[in-house]
Model the fold of this input.
Amino acid sequence: MPQASGETPVVHIVDDDDSQRFGLDSLLRSVGLAARTYGSTQEFLKADRLDGPGCIVLDVRLPGTSGLDFQEELATLGIRLPVVLMTGHGDIPMSVRAMKAGAVDFLPKPFREQDMIDAVTAAINRDRLQRANENQAIAIVDRHATLSPREREVMALVTAGKMNKQIAAELGLSEVTVKIHRGAAMRKMGARSLADLVRMADALKDRAR
Amino acid sequence: MPQASGETPVVHIVDDDDSQRFGLDSLLRSVGLAARTYGSTQEFLKADRLDGPGCIVLDVRLPGTSGLDFQEELATLGIRLPVVLMTGHGDIPMSVRAMKAGAVDFLPKPFREQDMIDAVTAAINRDRLQRANENQAIAIVDRHATLSPREREVMALVTAGKMNKQIAAELGLSEVTVKIHRGAAMRKMGARSLADLVRMADALKDRAR
DNA sequence: GATCACATCACACGTTGGTATGAGGTGTGG
DNA sequence: CCACACCTCATACCAACGTGTGATGTGATC
Done:
């Protein structure tokens, strides 16, 4: 495993104001956090390692896309890093919109250094939890992808609580065949009990929401 | 069933300013919503029917407890009605705090009437969803409460994926006894399959969070 | 002291689940 | 054309599950 969970979280700072950016950078580094800075959203998107653990500190007022719009765009792009927003000219509706969109915090400038540190820490913690859940889910999805169509079908009915006999009737199969698919599904999914398989099936449904 | 899901949602308006309160009341009634008004948090808490469907519209500046503190107090009191906050003298940190605490919306005064209607509608929808989930969960908890200690114990191990034989060894019982408790648990919980029981067990764990 | 819920177990029986052996068919890709 | 994955099934066997009968013992409640 090259970079499992031991990877250091990175704080991505997106702000077009150079001095603000550098100030934030040194603040976060002073408390032992790894930071990267970007002068625009475009620059940020061109960077690699956006799939690693961490969070984003985003200025609302940016050239081109606003921070708020960009926050919503991130979801579309599949980037699920938690976002901390900051602004010098914000109002209440703006902060409410950001929080509704899932922001971890929304800090008006000037903010106290400790407030920013707390917000970033909370964001990184949220990311850690998200990531742990996501990793499990992905493992399950991957294994599920190795199932043959029939195996998937049988697994669905098994985890819906039906008996082999019922499944056989429903699919127009003999009971033996159902048992074979059922066994294969258990093996491929790595389920050591029916309870296991049921929970995996539920996890799959959640991801499909 | 006297008042199942067909009950009309009620908007509870808590504001110490008489004219504001009455204005809101008539606004909401004009769009066909049932509203009740309270001049203080105390008055609100003395009211009955707080367990019915609906939401709360809460002014931040109130005599005694502030709207924000009261919002957090509601959770302690077991009142889970969604909250819409409003204020004439708010700032960003205040709105962020409210949203973090789970507020549906935070409206600075003066607000557009449509914004309030939208917020209240969203709050009522959230309540409807919450309530549907909660009702199912409560039914499961109630049934689980009718289990004997042994039955609960066996149910936990069964839904953990263990075999009767293993459970028997773990609890120092014979396999027959385990089967009896298992059967009783299935019957009392109303589970028609093991998959059912597993999901109920998971729902119980979620409620215990 | 009778009643009742709870808990325990032996024995027996039938059902359901899981796997192996052996065998046949289809379709795809090298 | 052959290998391979997939899908199908019969037969057989063993393990696990579920239930019923009958019995014993405890503690709480009335």
Q: What stands out?
A: The radius of gyration of chain A is 23 Å.
